[in-house]
């Protein structure tokens, strides 16, 4: 398994994987993207979205056949290694992200997150389980 940041113009296979996993969003192909590859094909991805008020880790997903092998954690570390600042995210699986060094925040939540919940981005996700989390850059 190899993890790498993909170059502009190379995003199509990763975007297709995101679509398969239900994690794609408008503009995903233009955001910085990291992929985990096996045999030259993407088996996992994660994106970093730059909002006016924060950086957000988005679209973390791993092909079901490759889960439970540390692929997602390795993708998070690759992103954090290059992120140009603190990183926020919103998730319904906070235990997973606590294992990756994030902590739940209740105060100082960037306006991006409550604003997103008013859009189709959050459709179908149980909002009462959605936590905003932060990992500060070392
Ligand atoms: C969540 C997901 C990305 C995990 O991918 P993965 O490659 O299997 O995760 P890893 O193997 O790196 O797991 C790292 C650790 O997190 C734990 N973990 C994995 N999935 C978890 C979950 N859903 N909840 C809590 N902990 C989880 C693992 O047990 C492992 O712990 P360990 O190191 O103590 O053994 C993957 O299941 C997935 O793609 N799910 C669908 C998309 C999704 O929910 N994305 C997150 C959106 S916010």
Structural account:
The protein is α+β, with helices and mostly antiparallel strands and 138 residues long. The protein has a single domain (2-135), classed as Gcn5-related N-acetyltransferase (GNAT) (Aminopeptidase), CATH 3.40.630. 22% of the residues lie in helices and 29% in strands. It has 4 helices and 7 strands. It has helices spanning 12-20, 71-82, 94-98, 112-116, and strands at 2-5, 33-38, 41-50, 55-62, 87-91, 103-104, 131-135. The protein has a 7-stranded mixed β-sheet. The chain is globular. The two termini are 26 Å apart. Coenzyme A is lined by residues 21, 60-62, 67-73, 91, 93, 95-96, 99.
The major beta sheet can be summarized as: 7 strands, mixed
The unique ligands bound to this protein are: coenzyme A
Count of individual beta strands: 7
Radius of gyration: 14 Å
CATH architecture: 3-Layer(aba) Sandwich
CATH topology, which one? Aminopeptidase
**Sheet with the most strands: spatial strand order:** 1-2-3-4-5-7-6
CATH superfamily: Gcn5-related N-acetyltransferase (GNAT)
Mean pLDDT across all amino acids = 95
The amount of helix comes to 10-25%
Shape: globular
Order of helices and strands: EHEEEHEHEHE
Euclidean distance between termini CA atoms: 26 Å
- The unreliable regions are none
Question: In terms of structural class, how would the helical and strand content be classed?
Answer: alpha+beta
Share of residues in strands? 25-35%
Count of all domains:
1
CATH class: Alpha Beta
Helix count, DSSP H or I runs of 4 or more residues: 4
